[in-house]
Amino acid sequence: MSNENREESLKTGTEKTAQPQGRTPEQAEHAPSQLQTPEEAAEALKDCHFDTKLIHFGAEIDPTTGASSVPIYQASTFHHFDIYDPPQYDYSRSGSPTRQALEDYISLLEGGAGGYAFASGMAAISAALMIFSAGDHLIVTEDVYGGTYRLLTTILSRMNIETTFVDMTDLEQVKAALRPNTKGVFMETPSNPTLKITDLGAVTAWAKEHDLLTLVDNTFMTPYYQRPIEQGVDIILHSATKFLGGHSDVLAGLAVARTPELAVQLKKLQNGLGTVLGPQDSWLLIRGMKTLGARMERSEASARKLAKWLSERDDIASVYYPGLSDHPGREIHEKQSAGYGAVVSFDVGSEERAKRLLNKVKLPLVAVSLGAVESILSYPPMMSHAAMPREVRLERGIGDGLLRFSVGLENIDDLIADLEQALID
């Protein structure tokens, strides 16, 4: 063996490719026709509806046993049967079959070049933002999730990465924030918690004119309703703890790259930072994602009814929901999304009234998080946006009386009756 070939043979699978696949083409050749590489699965499913892709995603059948579920490979390391022919997986931080099945799954659903699974949504966002370097400047939607705000203002700021927060419903404000050192645009649409709408296509087109990287947090819509890669966005991020997992039993984050070049960068960051998702949680997330369509449809139908009911009440100061006819940016949202989602925010007028309601409701969880089978009622000033200073929060429309309702699978009439009794002063 030549020195050149020997050096090549000593590379691990994760060094040879940005994203090692769960089954090699050679393995797929000897498997039944429904067992395919992720690339072949994507090609075979390209004309199928999204709900079909949720069930048939290329790894739904184990090629070794025919099992109807992705196996949980509870292993940290993998044996080298031949030191000159390293295995596809060598160490679980770099890659594992269970996590790989999940990563191929989300990449298929988002239409990307590579998907990556992390230990939490913030781990995914943190890794993606590590693409940027000291001296870089980012433009970020002003009412971004509180955890992202904390990361940008207290951690990345120490690394000399600058951030300007703008109202992204106004493209002119985005353009005005451009600096010579601007390198990226971070979007969230609908935003959390006021559900402001950003025109993904318009912002992305402008960003490309200036060679800016675009990122979007797609947690609220999921790829079931919104696929930002189709609008040209470079990196898609998810707190998969929420709607993708759907059962309040797994903590996870996902990132999807639009191009192979960005996939290489995300893979290096995932492996280098080590904030990866374990096999048990990867399996739980795969299981949850299979029912995404059914859950989103049911929860959205209920959310629309809830938003309408709230909007007709005189004792509610404001209601935020893209499905309402008077919601700012509704036309833009309908252009880029197939649905309105299952999160409704509303302002009851004061902190005192909000806290009284939280202590009186009986059905929804009063908790952090969203997107589960059970409804979750949150108080952003104390929960999701506690890291945001009050004066900043108020400037961004997140008032002391604001509540965020993530509608679950309960009967909506029961949820409304519960809210009605809780709203009685």
UniProtKB/TrEMBL annotation:
<dbReference type="InterPro" id="IPR000277">
    <property type="entry name" value="Cys/Met-Metab_PyrdxlP-dep_enz"/>
</dbReference>
<keyword id="KW-0486">Methionine biosynthesis</keyword>
<keyword id="KW-0028">Amino-acid biosynthesis</keyword>
<comment type="similarity">
    <text>Belongs to the trans-sulfuration enzymes family.</text>
</comment>
<dbReference type="InterPro" id="IPR015424">
    <property type="entry name" value="PyrdxlP-dep_Trfase"/>
</dbReference>
<feature type="compositionally biased region" description="Basic and acidic residues">
    <location>
        <begin position="1"/>
        <end position="14"/>
    </location>
</feature>
<protein>
    <recommendedName>
        <fullName>cysteine-S-conjugate beta-lyase</fullName>
        <ecNumber>4.4.1.13</ecNumber>
    </recommendedName>
</protein>
<dbReference type="InterPro" id="IPR015422">
    <property type="entry name" value="PyrdxlP-dep_Trfase_small"/>
</dbReference>
<dbReference type="InterPro" id="IPR015421">
    <property type="entry name" value="PyrdxlP-dep_Trfase_major"/>
</dbReference>
<feature type="region of interest" description="Disordered">
    <location>
        <begin position="1"/>
        <end position="41"/>
    </location>
</feature>
<keyword id="KW-0663">Pyridoxal phosphate</keyword>
<keyword id="KW-0456">Lyase</keyword>
<dbReference type="InterPro" id="IPR054542">
    <property type="entry name" value="Cys_met_metab_PP"/>
</dbReference>
<feature type="compositionally biased region" description="Polar residues">
    <location>
        <begin position="15"/>
        <end position="24"/>
    </location>
</feature>
<dbReference type="Pfam" id="PF01053">
    <property type="entry name" value="Cys_Met_Meta_PP"/>
</dbReference>
